[in-house]
C-alpha cells in the first residue's frame, strides 16, 4: 500500500498513475484539425443526402398542349367500310390519332382497336394511325383528312385521341392527348 | 536528469490520416444506412416512380363481369391491382390472375383491355390501382401506385 502511495505521489510530471488520477493538463486535438474533420463530415453527409433526395426532384410531366382538338366532320358507312373525315379544329398540328370503338350500346368504354382496319389515308404504327411516317405533325389547323377503314365487325361508337410530336427535354416525343379525346356515335353495320 | 524526447507523426500526415478515416467511416455509415432504407425505383430518367404515379391517366368501366380499361395517358401501365370492397372488408387481387387477356407488357399509350373477370361480384365497389415498372439497382421492379391514383368503379 505504501509503495502504491509512493508511486502515485512521486514528483514526476510524467508519472502515469499520477496524471491519470490527478489530470492537471487536458489535451485535445488541434482546433484546425477539428474544423477539418467537421467540414469533411458535413460534406460527406451532404453528398449522401443529395444522392437520396435527387430522385424526388419533380420533373415536368409529358402533357399535350392545351388547344389540341380534332373532330369527326362527317362519316359514311357502306357494308362495314367506314369513311371518316377528320378536321383539325384546334390550335396545334396533329401527327395522328388512336381510334377505338364499341360494338354494343351498353358499353361505356371503347376498347376495340380500329387502327388495324385502316386501308387508306393513314399508316398504322403500333396502335396509332399516323398521317405521315416522318416524325412530324402534318395535320395543320383547319386541315381535313379522310381515312377509310374496312371493319371486321359492326360498331356502335368510336373514340378518338389525337397524338402529336412535341419537344420535351430536347427530344422529340410522341404525346397522347388524352384530355382532347372525342366520342362519336357512329353506327356501321354489315348490309 | 534525462529528458526523454517526445516523438510523434507530423501534423500534416495526421491531418491526412484523420480526413481519410472520416471519409471511410462516412462511406461505411452510408452503405449501412442505404441497406436499411427502402430501395429507390426510378422511371423516365431518374425520377422517383412515386412521382410518376401522378401522371398516370386511365379510364375503366365494369358491366356484367366485363372489365374494360383504356390508357389515355402517356405512362405505360404494366399491371393493375383491384381492391375489392365488400361488406365491411376488402381484398386486393392482381388483374393478371383474374384475366388472361391482360397484355404481357401492360398497356402502353392508347392501349386498351377488355376481359371477363370473376371473383369481384361479391363486392360493391372496386378501386383499380395501376402498377408501374421502373429501374432500381437490382434491375427492373414493379411499384403499385397508392389508392389516391386509382380509379373507382361501383359494381
Pick out its properties.
heterodimer, A: 191 residues, alpha+beta, Immunoglobulin-like, 2 domains, seven-stranded antiparallel β-sheet, four-stranded antiparallel β-sheet, 3 helices, 11 strands, rod-shaped, B: 155 residues, five-stranded antiparallel β-sheet, three-stranded antiparallel β-sheet, 37% strand, elongated
Description:
The complex is a heterodimer of chains A (191) and B (155). In chain A, 19% of the residues lie in helices and 36% in strands. In chain A, strands 3, 4, 6, 7, 9, 10 and 11 form a 7-stranded antiparallel sheet that branches. In chain A, strands 1-2-8-5 form a 4-stranded antiparallel sheet, with no helix packed on it. Chain A is α+β, with helices and mostly antiparallel strands. Chain A has 2 domains: 2-56, no CATH class; 70-188, Immunoglobulin-like, CATH 2.60.40. Chain A is built from 3 helices and 11 strands; from the N terminus they run H-H-H-E-E-E-E-E-E-E-E-E-E-E. In chain B, strand 3 and strand 4 form a beta hairpin. Chain B has 3 helices and 10 strands. The mean pLDDT of chain B is 86. With 155 residues, chain B is α+β, with helices and mostly antiparallel strands. Chain B has one domain (42-154): Sandwich (Immunoglobulin-like), CATH 2.60.40. In chain B, strands 5, 6, 8, 9 and 10 form a 5-stranded antiparallel sheet that branches. Chain B has helices spanning 11-36, 49-52, 95-98; strands at 42-43, 47-48, 58-63, 66-71, 79-86, 89-94, 112-116, 125-136, 139-144, 151-154.
Amino acid at each position: 500500500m505504501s509503495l502504491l502511495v509512493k508511486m502515485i505521489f512521486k514528483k514526476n510530471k510524467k508519472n502515469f498513475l499520477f496524471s491519470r488520477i490527478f489530470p492537471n493538463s487536458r489535451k485535445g486535438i488541434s482546433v484546425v484539425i477539428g474544423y477539418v474533420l467537421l467540414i469533411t463530415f458535413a460534406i460527406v453527409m451532404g453528398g449522401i443526402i443529395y444522392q437520396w433526395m435527387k430522385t424526388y426532384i419533380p420533373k415536368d410531366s409529358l402533357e399535350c398542349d392545351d388547344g389540341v382538338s380534332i373532330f369527326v366532320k362527317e362519316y359514311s358507312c357502306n357494308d362495314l367500310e367506314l369513311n371518316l373525315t377528320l378536321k383539325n379544329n384546334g390550335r396545334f398540328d396533329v401527327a395522328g390519332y388512336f381510334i377505338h370503338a364499341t360494338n354494343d350500346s351498353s358499353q361505356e368504354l371503347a376498347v376495340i382497336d380500329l387502327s388495324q382496319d385502316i386501308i387508306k389515308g393513314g399508316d398504322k404504327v403500333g396502335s396509332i394511325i399516323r398521317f405521315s411516317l416522318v416524325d412530324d405533325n402534318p395535320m395543320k389547323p383547319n386541315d381535313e383528312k379522310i381515312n377509310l377503314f374496312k371493319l371486321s365487325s359492326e360498331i356502335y361508337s368510336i373514340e378518338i385521341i389525337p397524338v402529336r410530336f412535341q419537344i420535351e427535354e430536347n427530344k422529340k416525343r410522341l404525346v397522347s392527348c388524352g384530355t382532347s379525346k372525342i366520342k362519336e356515335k357512329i353506327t356501321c353495320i354489315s348490309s | 536528469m534525462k529528458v526523454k524526447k517526445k516523438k510523434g507523426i507530423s501534423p500534416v500526415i495526421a491531418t491526412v490520416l484523420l480526413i481519410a478515416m472520416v471519409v471511410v467511416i462516412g462511406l461505411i455509415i452510408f452503405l449501412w444506412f442505404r441497406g436499411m432504407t427502402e430501395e429507390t425505383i426510378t422511371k423516365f430518367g431518374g425520377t422517383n416512380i412515386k412521382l410518376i404515379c401522378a401522371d398516370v391517366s386511365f379510364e375503366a368501366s365494369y358491366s356484367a363481369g366485363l372489365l374494360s380499361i383504356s390508357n389515355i395517358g402517356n405512362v405505360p401501365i404494366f399491371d393493375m391491382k383491384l381492391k375489392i370492397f365488400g361488406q365491411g372488408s376488402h381484398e386486393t387481387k392482381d388483374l393478371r390472375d383474374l384475366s388472361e387477356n391482360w397484355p404481357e407488357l401492360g398497356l402502353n399509350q392508347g392501349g386498351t383491355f377488355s376481359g371477363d373477370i370473376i371473383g369481384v361480384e361479391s363486392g360493391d365497389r372496386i378501386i383499380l390501382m395501376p402498377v408501374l415498372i421502373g429501374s432500381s439497382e437490382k434491375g427492373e421492379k414493379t411499384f403499385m401506385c397508392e389508392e389516391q391514383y386509382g380509379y373507382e368503379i361501383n359494381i
